[in-house]
């Protein structure tokens, strides 16, 4: 897929179950510059792992390429509980992390 005005080109990959397993931003030569891999456990999205392919750029932008891990309420639930975000340096050492918690309302309607 090429974005409007042809400035970016993205390729998407799916498994046999129709789950997106990766996406990649391609440069003008067709090489992957940025790639995101998606890790699944059944129908639960467990992780998003971002990679910068160009080494000279990776050193400067790795902080901007977080790894997301999703935690669900229980194995039989699709209700997300938390999103853990981790950043690593160019040598794959963790340099920063944060946890975001989801608040899922049981019902969107209000009683009178």
List the helices and strands and how they pair.
Layout: E1 9-14, E2 20-26, E3 32-41, E4 44-52, H1 55-61, E5 67-72, E6 80-88, E7 94-101
Antiparallel strand pairs: 1-2, 2-3, 3-4, 4-5, 5-6, 6-7
N-to-C CA distance: 49 Å
Global geometry: globular
Largest sheet: 7 strands, antiparallel
Share of β-strand residues: over 45%
Structural class assignment:
mainly beta
- Point out poorly predicted stretches: none
Helix-strand string? EEEEHEEE
| Strand tally | 7
Helicity, as a percent range = under 10%
Number of helices: 1
Main sheet strand line-up: 1-2-3-4-5-6-7
Averaged pLDDT: 81
Tell me the Rg in angstroms: 17 Å
Brief characterization of the structure:
The protein is mainly beta. The chain has one helix at 55-61, and strands at 9-14, 20-26, 32-41, 44-52, 67-72, 80-88, 94-101.
Structure description:
The chain has 112 residues and is mainly beta. The protein has a domain at 32-101. Helices cover 6% and strands 49% of the residues. The protein has 1 helix and 7 strands; from the N terminus they run E-E-E-E-H-E-E-E. The protein has one helix spanning 55-61; strands at 9-14, 20-26, 32-41, 44-52, 67-72, 80-88, 94-101. It has a 7-stranded antiparallel sheet with strand order 1-2-3-4-5-6-7. Strand 5 (67-72) and strand 6 (80-88) form a beta hairpin. It is globular and about 45 Å long. The mean pLDDT is 81.
